[in-house]
Amino acid sequence: MTVLSLPPLDLDAGGPGDDDSPLRSVSTAVSVLDCFADEAELGATRVAARLGIAKSTACRMLAALATGGLLERTGSGRYRLGLRLFEYGQLAVDRLMLRDVALPAMGDLRELLRETIQLGVSVGTDVLYVERAEAAGMNVRFRSEHRRNPAHSSSAGRVLAAADPALITAILERGLRRYTPFTVVDPLRYRQILAITRDQGYATSREEFEPGWSSIAAPITLTREGRPHPVAALSVVGPTSRVLGPRKPAVVQGVRRAAARISADLERARG
């Protein structure tokens, strides 16, 4: 994820009594939000130190952002990114080239496998699904209200984390929460799974977020500094017996081919 780098706050800008001007408030708010790009949770003391502002100013700004839904306060009294910010992010990502380029391959993969296909990107320590092609004619369906999942409990999250040491660290610092009896919550085991993911080029998740549902994901990449770098994940989700049962080799082959196709189309679109 590309993070906007802002210039240091100039607390002496403007004339006397200008400290609470609207433009200064907006600048401070953006700088505060920028702090959460590489740390999942922060308190006022840490924000004040990072930005070189008074702790009282940091407290006021954090509280205001939480009131607006851009941040939310945790049980420890610190703050993390709020749902409204994720919603704004989804609106932005929906308009990016990735979604438009991926749609044809997603549709073809859905018709081939007759399962739900998802396109996910990393947002903090979660996976945000920016597009979902639902399988038609199914008697049971994946709960489509899940637009954002914790990265550690999804195959898409594993594909993205496997190539991103900073994301791995952030996920482990946040903690591996158990959602079902099958959720991997041991850090050592989690790292082992990511190593396997890197070696085999795809990831699996067996009923780790919702009982009865499993997934397989492959990375969508762009070339950076001469090497393919994952920018998104393509995943197939469905009942465990259909995704990880006898059909697993076909699912793996299908999702990897589709992800490779999207990656090639992205490279061509980028020019």
Radius of gyration based on Cα positions: 20 Å
Strands, count: 8
Within CATH, the superfamily of the largest domain carries the name GAF domain
Instruction: Report how far apart the termini are.
Output: 20 Å
Alpha-beta classification? alpha+beta
Helix content: 40-55%
What order do the strands of the largest sheet run in, or round the barrel if closed?
5-4-3-8-7-6
Describe the structure.
The chain is α+β, with helices and mostly antiparallel strands and 271 residues long. It folds into two domains: 60 residues, Winged helix-like DNA-binding domain superfamily/Winged helix DNA-binding domain (Arc Repressor Mutant, subunit A, Orthogonal Bundle), CATH 1.10.10.10; 184 residues, GAF domain (Beta-Lactamase, 2-Layer Sandwich). Helices cover 45% and strands 20% of the residues. The chain has a six-stranded antiparallel sheet. Helix 1 crosses helix 3, helix 5 packs antiparallel against helix 10 and helix 6 crosses helix 8. The two termini are 20 Å apart.
